Records
---
Amino acid sequence: MRQIRIATATQVSDRLLNLFFTMKHTYSLLLLTLIGFGSISQVTAQEHDISESLKKEAQALSQAALEENIAYEIVESLTTEVGPRLAGSKAEKRAREWGVAKLKELGFENVHVEPFEVPLWERGIERAEIVSPFPQQLTVTALGGSVATPEEGVVGELVRFGSIKELEKQAQGSLVGKIVFIDEIMTRTQDGSGYGVAVAKRRQTAYEAFKKGAIGALIRSVGTSSHRFAHTGQMKTITDITGEIDSVPTAALSGPDADQLTRALERTESIQIKLQLTPRFEPASTSGNVVGEIVGTESPEEIILIGGHLDSWDLGTGAIDDGAGIGITVAAARLIKDHYPNGLKRTIRVILWGSEEVGLVGAKAYAEAHENELQNFIVAAESDFGAGKIWKFNSFFAEEKLHYLSSFADTLKPLGIARGDNQASSGPDVGALKAKGVPIVSLQQNGWDYFDLHHTPNDTLDKIDPDDLAQNVAAYAAFIYLASEVDDDFRAKEKEIN
Amino acid sequence: MRQIRIATATQVSDRLLNLFFTMKHTYSLLLLTLIGFGSISQVTAQEHDISESLKKEAQALSQAALEENIAYEIVESLTTEVGPRLAGSKAEKRAREWGVAKLKELGFENVHVEPFEVPLWERGIERAEIVSPFPQQLTVTALGGSVATPEEGVVGELVRFGSIKELEKQAQGSLVGKIVFIDEIMTRTQDGSGYGVAVAKRRQTAYEAFKKGAIGALIRSVGTSSHRFAHTGQMKTITDITGEIDSVPTAALSGPDADQLTRALERTESIQIKLQLTPRFEPASTSGNVVGEIVGTESPEEIILIGGHLDSWDLGTGAIDDGAGIGITVAAARLIKDHYPNGLKRTIRVILWGSEEVGLVGAKAYAEAHENELQNFIVAAESDFGAGKIWKFNSFFAEEKLHYLSSFADTLKPLGIARGDNQASSGPDVGALKAKGVPIVSLQQNGWDYFDLHHTPNDTLDKIDPDDLAQNVAAYAAFIYLASEVDDDFRAKEKEIN
């Protein structure tokens, strides 16, 4: 896959060694013996390693990243000049225009948009209130893809369930005329593992409630905030739900409002709730993924793919979700370009994914369109978990390439990043690539506070710590550099031979 | 002012001593000499002190307060069963009904409502957006008393000023057709001293902007939250503004939105803003102060007056402002009733003040109605600064009665409360009493976080720490006890003689 490269004098010995090591193991041993290396054990130790000079170069890039503020400036630009950018909306189109201009301004090559189609779901009025016996407004927001109530709203008795599983157990038609309330609490974790569990209620409540005969539903927000923000988020993938009639109007309650309803239910036999949601659907229009590259000098067809998603929910300005991911990955690639104006050996491709929030629509379109090139994707990573410091480094590599993880971790250790495991759960937009065998790296951010802000109006620029953001850029820059310069890929050998 | 009292055996010696001391100083000295006390200096030291047994009794009450949870239960009941309770609204009426029922349930005597009239100002739609060049919604809320825009809103160019003073300096008619933006930042302090400064812009912007020819105004919220909540609050006293036409529609922006506008203004020559506010005024209707007492056994006409305000802003459920004050003062009086079923010597009067938020309407009505009884008010205190721990104890006593502050402070010290000064800024509802010479005590709460929540939707029960609330009750119970049982008042002597 790799041509012989032009190297600096200081790199020649490493390169020569690496060249031998890309040959079959037996040949390597033979050659090593011929050129006078000592023992087989020493060979084994060095064979699969990344050279010290590469690590040092990567760390120098990290250091440079820590001294600049460009990622933050990128997020500031996006969140201020575009603001919220809902999938399929005019604002998302403005975000693509912003993305193309920003990548060109920063020196990226081959900047273009790869279009795809996506329907639009837009929220309208969203109100919920206790009608009786304790009349008061509640803080709610419609879930993405929710159908509308009649314009005047619906009124029904509230029925609380501690979990979506409890609702599922109810008999069909047993909740006719009721408004369902799923009061399931999400667990706060550093790694975001509470999300997968909690999100089930967001995806299923509208459909389960419909089966039971309910006329509307409220869920405790999928989120961990103690503040009075309702967290929106998608139910089914938007391309699967437009126009369907097998669900009820469904909104998320802020945590304090869910607590309030639970307290109210402890004090009275029956609570009447009014729910008024007027979202609307629009037919599919063009969205797109924005792509830019730092083209490789030696193996330009080999791709290191990084990025974040460009769309955001409509409530906040999408700073942590996912302006941060855009800022981090664009700044990391730009830093490489700044230090290596001609590029690294491999191509760094940055993708600003479109329409992620409504069901990874851009990612699916991309994986399909590029299906025949995936063998050239050396590794892919997405930054989409906020702006917290990276603390762990996971991979999804072939077993026989796991030793690289150790070298990567050595390089990243000064940034406070520990070696993780090989079970990387990819960023959402590279999941389709991972499913097709593309090696994945996950630079895991500290997500302790992420779900306090996620999908709320409170996802704004001020929540980002510029120093934490720069640490992310430092890690990505080092990772990109090593992944480009190492004389190997991260797949199983047999796949390389094919 | 005080009759001879029936006392327990252990109290007799203290009482006897005190009895002498309530006599003219010269008589006291004579008597003391007769009964064999040693020196004049010893007399002076003891003359004005509160006895150790009273202090111990007060501290026992404090201890009991720390072991119960009733204040929190009261706030929970009010904020859940009534929720928001805007001055002059049906909800405030429900709050009065709640208050009467709650005070009766807890064993208060003479429970009644003292009515007064108040107009109603109710918010409607409130939206603001950047129309161009960076279209996006802003988080705003109308200020109490704001006039409405036309239903379709107003559109104008944004003009930013760093302070209300800067706006004041502009020439009359110099901002025709503009939308004013006052971007003055409030200082966070423990004692709330940043509020007085910050609130000027809330009170004046609508009127100043009108003079300059503007068509609308936005202010950075009077608040310290980094979260995306706009803080409402009253402009002029509601009784002074109904129907007036010398102001422009005015809303508060959340902190992050004010930051966003400032960033946007750094990037463009001109920002067009659309502001849509549809609040409405209703003529005056009946509001009221809810009053309950623990009647005194010996000097029932002498009043220790405590309380919080019953109304709240409409956005939150009024937990810290001022459900907490209601809970603290009601629980403290109830604790006294629990320990002394026949009452203390003096009467403890608890007032749940009505219509505080819109200009102290209940307090003014009360001070007027009770003008001729104020000489019987021994001391007044209001709890209206959230639910943080009390850390300081200020007074507004006659100079010659300041020595009591030392005894009060001794008693409160185990609760972590320090002696303050004699410049107590009263709780708002007792300000009118203070102005008429009623001695005041201010049990100052830690307000570091108070203005994060104040007047926002985020003022909800979960923000209250039950242990902190119990510490407040402990302090109030001790204070009430001492203020009732001390054989003196806190006014200058000449006033007593009159």
Note: The interface with chain B takes residues 76, 79-84, 91, 130, 134-137, 139, 226-229, 255-256, 259-260, 263-264, 267, 316-317, 456-458, 460-463 of chain A (CB under 8 Å).
---
Amino acid sequence: MDEHPALVVIGHVESPLTEPSLAPRQGSEGAPDAWLVFRDAVRDGLRELSVGDEIIVLTWLHRAARDTLRVHPRDDLSRPLTGVFSTRSADRPNPIGLHPVRILEVEDGVRFQVRGMEAVDGTPIVDVKPVIRASGT
Amino acid sequence: MDEHPALVVIGHVESPLTEPSLAPRQGSEGAPDAWLVFRDAVRDGLRELSVGDEIIVLTWLHRAARDTLRVHPRDDLSRPLTGVFSTRSADRPNPIGLHPVRILEVEDGVRFQVRGMEAVDGTPIVDVKPVIRASGT
């Protein structure tokens, strides 16, 4: 079995956030609106997404430290060192970000404005999933 | 920027489910209990996880078809073809599975029995995150 599966980048985040140290920790903590800009190659997969939809965007947090296994949660040194799998730290072996956001606007089928995205400008996007409701898809 | 980031496999699922076509679509649809078995190399990152914790397990659905962009949701041919990013289909450019589960038992710091895991036996694990509550970590 392949022990190093390779991701493909399907798009990027366009955001006024450029400095990771200034970005909010979670989208609910004052993150600005941002654009998800997808590659034309995945256009057919996006066609049913529309304004108002709640989605989970999966990103690759490319600036993270992948050899980190213990952190002070939220960089608060008064909190004890904690295993990364009990935190939402970006620093972890596979720095995949999960971002629940709502679609505000769609342009040209591959540009989606969303509310509450805390990833910095240029962050690679690797997947989008619907928020599961009772009916399930 | 690296357009093909490589994941590292941090563990595997041990489950009585061996046949993808017989696995439930979501963990809430009758999935059996399973074991998450992690590599010793990530032990330090797991230390604070304990029985009763609700976590999100991220897997690499290694049997998926990565060139699929449109599917009939839940393989129901009566439902129209839909973009994969509006569905939870495993077939998608980056087949990352999200599995919300609860920890039932911990053995030796690297084996975690969980409830409601629909991934088949041998599925690679790539990350674990806490379910975010109001306080946030």
Note: The longest helix of chain B spans residues 43-46.
---
Amino acid sequence: MPHRIRRIDAEAACAEQGSDALAEVKLHGRLAYEGDMLRVHRDIVRCPDGHIAYREFIRHPGAVMVIPMVDEDHVLLERQFRYPLARTFVEFPAGKIEPGEAPLECAQRELLEETGYRARDWIYAGGFNNAIGYSDERIEVFVARSLTLDATRRDPGEVLELFSVRWRQLDQWVRDGRITDCKTIIGIYWIERLLGAG
Amino acid sequence: MPHRIRRIDAEAACAEQGSDALAEVKLHGRLAYEGDMLRVHRDIVRCPDGHIAYREFIRHPGAVMVIPMVDEDHVLLERQFRYPLARTFVEFPAGKIEPGEAPLECAQRELLEETGYRARDWIYAGGFNNAIGYSDERIEVFVARSLTLDATRRDPGEVLELFSVRWRQLDQWVRDGRITDCKTIIGIYWIERLLGAG
């Protein structure tokens, strides 16, 4: 679709994050689909140039991702089957935030459930949005260090595979397409910043 | 949810990308919601441990993102209102692939529509999946160089703002939360690799 383009400078781009020259106004909204996992909203909006449009999007409870550091050089990764793409993915542990749960609590729960580890040190890296065109999901990224295995946690349930790898090797896995999961690539971005100076 | 964890080594993680020890088998599927923009599928699957589960996910036509290099130091970015999150985002130009369109064609069309520029040099960086839990979307990343403004393209339509910025400044914008869009962060990851040596 053609776009109306307004040229601004970089300072304005930062300063005006909260401005509404671009804002779309909700005129009407409804829950168009409610499944077990996905809820789709369908709103009618007025765009800044006056035209009326539909917006369909998913409301998501938010999620966390954990980068578990085995030591300064190694991270834990999972291999998990992802049905929408019908193949396994190499990825960092992650999961949805439950009602009333703080992001850090969720990170601690997911790390334990998916890897069997607890961590003494937690660093919050930052958050990102993974599908701004059609979802309100935000994923908070934590680095977990000083891991200890909790041998009592071995409940059966969903299946995944766990392995340890040198994190400096992961850039090559992104370059050759072995890692394509966005959160995992962003995890590598953050590790480089937090640990890459050495 | 608790998980059944199998420990493997990093070599196995790479070698077995196509294996099916983790695969879920589709037993039944239906289109559960068909909107103007989103289509939700709801399948019943058998998991590798035998249990039966639902999988809900969006089928997406795929998308491209373009990193437009004004020169070796500057990139073009947009500011666009994203309704699901009710705020503007700083992001690289991107858009959905149309039926029958090759990813590069889509990238050229989106660059022209969203910025008014054509590019002589195109580099394919790689692809990534942005919501593997509930969407089959894949975004292909291109770097566009040797830009020329096509002054004839000024159709009105959706509204966005365009600006140029030093790409080495963008890491700070990720760190301080001014950039949270996953594709744009991954774009910075790729620029650093393709141009960052200098």
Note: Chain B is about 20% helix and 45% strand.
---
Amino acid sequence: MRIGAIEAGGTKFVLAVGTEQGEIVEKTTISTEHPDITMPKVIEFFEDKGISRIGVGSFGPIDCNEMSASYGTLQKTPKTDWVDYPLGGTLKEALDVPVFIDTDVNVAAMSETKWGNARDVDTCLYITVGTGIGAGAYFHGQTLTGLSHPEMGHIKVRRHPNDDYEGTCPYHGDCLEGLAAGPAIEKRWGKSAKELADNEQVWELEADYLAQALTNYIYILSPERIVIGGGVMKQQQLFPFIREKVLHMLNGYVTSPYVTEREIDQYIVPPGLTDEAGVKGALYLAMRD
Amino acid sequence: MRIGAIEAGGTKFVLAVGTEQGEIVEKTTISTEHPDITMPKVIEFFEDKGISRIGVGSFGPIDCNEMSASYGTLQKTPKTDWVDYPLGGTLKEALDVPVFIDTDVNVAAMSETKWGNARDVDTCLYITVGTGIGAGAYFHGQTLTGLSHPEMGHIKVRRHPNDDYEGTCPYHGDCLEGLAAGPAIEKRWGKSAKELADNEQVWELEADYLAQALTNYIYILSPERIVIGGGVMKQQQLFPFIREKVLHMLNGYVTSPYVTEREIDQYIVPPGLTDEAGVKGALYLAMRD
């Protein structure tokens, strides 16, 4: 069985055809423009591939409640050309196959649990720190959804006493995303993350905000593994800082061996599927139903 | 079928016998002392009741992973007499019936979803604000567990600029529980919550901390209903303050109609089962498996 998989991101769409074993047999990338430009290219790619179903891990917010009339429709996204765009409906109509949609981060949590760095556990939190901050959870075979999908990047963290940057979030100013996503780093320091790679002060501050968030996620969700990806996390020096600060903030309250000095390196980890977590997650999403 | 139900709390145990319809046919309450004193009374109560199974909603932390060798055993609880006490194992051995254990707040989330103020939705967060602050989540027929059960009361919130109270939590000082549970209110203001009922400043501060927590829970879990109970919430004037502040903090980012001025009164609500949420949850826990 050949399965279609789409990682629909704010800057690019990854289109792939894969197998039930998680093997990607063909893949291409196109840039995200107006839906009238992007979507015909997506449909053209899949048209002659003989796929029986298609999975999509999408940027959001998006309605991913299968029972809803607007399942697969984008909502109030900052990508204004895509607001209210029926991504799922358009694919289904054009390709005449079942379409399964969840958020990019929820499907990444799924694929990391199936094939990646959380494949030995049942509960995984996947966080991406890039242009924005988002997270998805895959717990005991279900992604976490309720009212809508989570928007974990918008929690409040305590400001570092030496940081007076006002934050970039148009809704909340200095929420986690407003203080710690890529654009906040660039605007606060006036340089790109890459140019700041050797400035320890930058990454210590960044790690403080991310560790606060992870500590809250641990108290609220209690995942057995935390996978962190995204452009900002290419700065690998962040990992030891974050781990150390999470241990310090938990202060021994959570007694699991996973969150001790001995095992924390295996608890807070980069993605195992590197840049394919999204597209493989979309593949797995379509396989499951 | 008669089912045993226990709400095992830090100050009292509620013991009940009920039916599959959620009816409690007999109930008694005993105080929580040393297990050597309390447990023989528990066993004596159930011995001649002809129950076929028993459900327990317990204080924690407790191992509630059914696959674990120490399922039903208390962990590093502040009630030192109960540390490492095999609550589930003791009941099973003495009464020779299957025993099902989860946290007090997880089972309260279950019973509110089955019979209480969340019976029209699939995803419910139950929070108790009393001697401590705890929360449980029941999402699509599962309670939320991973590494362990959540410990949502220990998240960090931003300090109110006019509050310099250091907090009561022995692990984190000024985490949510340290700033906003009953003992923190009493110690900060030098009076009991009841005596402070008319002091608006007290409840505005309390609502600020609780609203911050609820906002974080909404971003991370996205529940369709939030039920808040516990001793501190007997101060009903807290509800309008909390609702208003949550709307202000979300600032329109979550677009569901549930979190709008029009519907927030039905979104953040007191328990429907009042003081029976725990024991009825224990009953439901035993019925489900």
Note: The domain at 3-104+275-287 of chain A is CATH 3.30.420.40 (Nucleotidyltransferase; domain 5).
